Amino acid sequence: MPIPFEGSPRPLDSFCTARRGRETEAERCYLAEEQDLRIAGQEREGRKAMGISIIEHDQVQGGPGRKSQRTALTTEALAQSFLDNLLFVQGRSLERATLNDLYMALAHTVRDRLAERWISTTKNYQSQDVRVVCYFSAEFLTGPHLANNLINLGIYDQTDEALRGLGIDLKTLVEQEEEPGLGNGGLGRLASCFMDSLATLDIPAIGYGIRYEYGIFDQQIRDGWQVETTDNWLRLGNPWALERPEDTFTVKLGGKTEWTMDANGRYRVQWVPGRVIRGVPHDTPILGYHTNTANTMRLWSAQAVESFDFETFNTGDYFGAVADKVASENISKILYPNDEGFQGKQLRLAQQFFFVSCSLQHILKIHTTQGRPLTDLHRKFAIQMNDTHPAIAVAELMRLLVDEHDIAWAMAWHITRNTLAYTNHTLLPEALEQWPLGLFGALLPRHLEIVQEINARHIQDIRAKFPGDEARVKRLSLIDECGEKYVRMAHLAAVGSHSINGVAALHTDLLKTSVLRDFHDLSPEKFTNKTNGVTPRRWIVLSNPRLADLITSRLGPKWISDLEKLRRLESLAHDPGFGDEWRSIKEHNKQKLAAYILDQSGVTVDPQSMFDVLVKRMHEYKRQHLQVLHILTLYNRIKRNPDSDVVPRTFIFGGKAAPGYLMAKLIIKLIHSVGEVVNADARVKGRLKVVFLPDYSVKLGQRVYPAADLSEQISLAGKEASGTGNMKFAMNGALTIGTLDGANVEIREEVGEENFFLFGLTAPEVKQLKANGYRSRTYYESNESLREVLDGLLSGEFSRGDSNLFRPLVESLLNSDEYLLLADYQPYIDCQDRVSSAFIDREGWARMSILNVARMGKFSSDRSIREYSAEIWRTWPVKVEF
Prior knowledge:
Elements: E1 26-29, E2 33-39, E3 42-48, E4 52-55, H1 57-60, H2 75-88, H3 99-127, E5 132-136, H4 146-153, H5 156-164, H6 170-176, H7 186-200, E6 205-210, E7 218-222, E8 225-229, E9 242-243, E10 249-253, E11 256-261, E12 267-272, E13 275-287, E14 294-304, H8 310-314, H9 323-329, H10 342-369, H11 377-380, E15 381-386, H12 393-404, H13 409-419, E16 420-423, E17 434-436, H14 437-443, H15 445-465, H16 470-476, E18 479-480, E19 486-488, H17 489-495, E20 500-502, H18 505-515, H19 517-522, E21 527-529, H20 536-542, H21 545-555, H22 576-601, E22 610-615, H23 624-640, E23 649-654, H24 662-680, E24 688-693, H25 698-704, E25 710-713, H26 725-731, E26 735-738, H27 744-751, E27 757-758, H28 763-771, H29 777-782, H30 784-795, H31 807-815, H32 821-840, H33 842-854, H34 861-873
Parallel strand pairs: 5-6, 5-15, 6-14, 15-16, 16-20, 20-21, 22-23, 22-25, 23-24, 25-26, 26-27
Antiparallel strand pairs: 1-4, 2-3, 7-8, 9-13, 10-13, 11-12, 13-14, 17-19, 18-19
Helix pairs in contact: 2-3, 2-5, 3-4, 4-20, 7-34, 10-12, 12-13, 12-15, 14-15, 22-33, 23-24, 23-30, 23-32
């Protein structure tokens, strides 16, 4: 296991705000389950009781007299530690400190209190016979650390009080934290929710990924168009991670392989690389909620083995002297480089191999330094590949075992398949990564040989099971032989894993019957479903403290680590007093968001209107433009009759488009252009407002989810793997309008169909409609309201007279409409009318909102992690003594 850690001045403003009291009783909940584990080659039953365990207050506080002043959790100790860190770490006095100095001093104060837990966690794992989960993810969208760690430590109130005594507002320092943009959206946020739950449930784990110097781009809006700027999240430093330069690993790239015969007459392969880079780890403690467990998130940055060529410099080639440094550091420079061209593809593949190789080398080092044979690796480590980005782990683990550690192929393959597991996150064929054979072989020549050997054996097995079915062989091959040859990374992950899981029940069913159908036919026992979840600590307790306090006042605090206890709110759904408090909290959250919208965009919105929210990555399959068609439909009703009875709505959008995704960027422009016209039209009388929140992030999501009345989950059925935004909205009391797609299906089952606004085609209906020859123009020709909307977009009314601006979008809908917007248009409009009718009854809406929250227990990431632990990883909680 990794060993944890041993501007110009500006006047300090006087910040003093009160925060409502918070519970500090610590507890954690375990689910009873049996584990059958093979340890050291012998059968052994690991049976752990996962009942409720309460950590006594003194234990959380460190116990009387046990802890130094530096790590004590009292108000007085926190204040003194803060001043010490301000002076000795930041080198500032309170009078001369900048806002960032104050934030950094507080961050170090909190990190000090994580340190002992972090060290104790590592020692515990080393001393006990545990199986460690290694979560491989190209993204970790953690969000800000400060407030989350304060909540998990149970010292938010003490810290607030300590700072108020110094004239400082805690919330201002929380806002100062720069968010690490190390993810694109749901994939990276899921990984971070899982890390939170792993620690909260005391599951031994390490998260592995890349420390991108520049994260997902910052999104600016200029004249309604998205403009990407650099996300320089490290410019003011990162106090949460510790660099470990003594624990680096080298990674080979390019070159060639050489085959030789050893003294025993066995063929051996040596990879002679074209270049070598170095991976430097940066470790961040991930603390569980009210537990002593602090797991590690290890992110790798790339460095040159030799950063400066002195001889080249002396010849006058100053740029050449640092060329290797620049080329090496590019590996971890930016999240998801544009991979449309050859160099972009090469860089992206190099990124994936870089972090996978470093991580696997680190795992093998941990294992061997503990004196364990590598033949037991799969009994000590469970590696989960989060989508196809880490799929090269199959070939790299084989290379390390066979080439570097002289393990026979059959044994190495047994170890690899029983160590690795694969989570699929997409049904979109274009998102299932594949690499041109030439590019793959040039960058990873040894791995291409290994993939070809795996494939040869794989094809042999297929032919044995399905004799004469050469079409199936082609479909299942790890290499796509049609036209330019490609290495199929999803196929590699599927073959090299002992488990393949989808992330929602519908998604898993579709994997079995479509995308990975042949693999399911080949190995049905591998397939399982693990519906996604999100952590209630960040997405309720931190994001929506008033709602959390209200729930705790009725249920006590145990629901925070056992979300199924929210079921007890059902009995309060018809309590008028509770309903009044519930609505008051929602109104407060909406007022806060309205103030933020005014400050950021200058648009005044009515907190009494319905906050109708669609925030997620911009993509045609997510159908943000369907929501725009609804806005235009309402706008046309008002234009025809300015006195028409339209329920006031504030339409709130947010999300980023991939830099090269022109249609998604055009949809962003469409939202702004429609908002420009609708918001300014006096006939609307403020009943419709359109807002786009730029640079959507975890921090911004913490503002938006608690304020939403209606959650838009309107992707075409069969396209969204799961979704997690749908869960965050529902946990915060928003009602959902959506299709039967992804986790919407299970959310509707849990909350009750009467508390969910359903519309649209089902996945089988989508398939059938396309098979019958879908003609979108038919819907345009037969629906007057739809025709009026689309014709309006071509008229120039919403584009300052430019009739061609939105023509590509309209023609796409009329001539192809891949995601069936026009087929779902009228059902969507009819459903939205039902939403408006329901919203008028504010008491009835509140009852539905309460029931949504009460029935969201299934969608805690704690439940997801318990299922992964019991059924895939076969590991159990390890209590950390502190």
